[in-house]
Amino acid sequence: MSQSSDDNHLYSDMTLLCVDDERIILRTLQRLFRRKPYKLLIADSAKEALEIVKDTPIDVIVSDMRMPEMDGATLLEKVAKSHPSTYRIVLSGYADFDSTVA
Questions:
Q1: Whole-prediction pTM value?
Q2: What pLDDT was estimated at residue 2?
Q3: Residues 48, 60: contact at Cβ < 8 Å?
Q4: What is the spatial distance between Cα 12 and Cα 94, in angstroms, rounded to a whole number?
Q5: pLDDT per residue over 32-88, tens digit each?
Q6: Is pLDDT of 20 > 80?
């Protein structure tokens, strides 16, 4: 079996959730992950993401940092408390390193 086939099998039961308030970013992420073996879910708000996480096991969550109502850091902090085994990644298009790290 090739390395690519091994990777496909390894990640075939993984679920990735992408969260961003900008539809164009969500579409770009969908295109980026389109040919990957894992299940991809999207949410256009932190509130929607929390509803998804409540009902669906998520392996990795990728969230935009700056969103209305709740920023990505707050969302990922809530996910860390309720689902500590979920890997969390924050995306930021801003050079505000201190707020992103916080």
A1: 0.81
A2: 46
A3: no
A4: 33
A5: 888 888 899 999 999 999 999 999 999 999 999 989 999 999 999 999 999 999 999
A6: yes
Q: What tokens does 87 get?
A: 């890997």
| Distance between CA atoms of residues 14 and 57, nearest Å | 9
| Tokens read off for 42 | 């999207």
Give the type of residue at 81: K
43 contact partners, CB below 8 Å, separation of at least 6: 17, 18, 19, 49, 51, 52
**DSSP code for 35:** T
Neighbours of 36 (CB within 10 A): 14
Cα gap 80→38, rounded to integer Å: 21
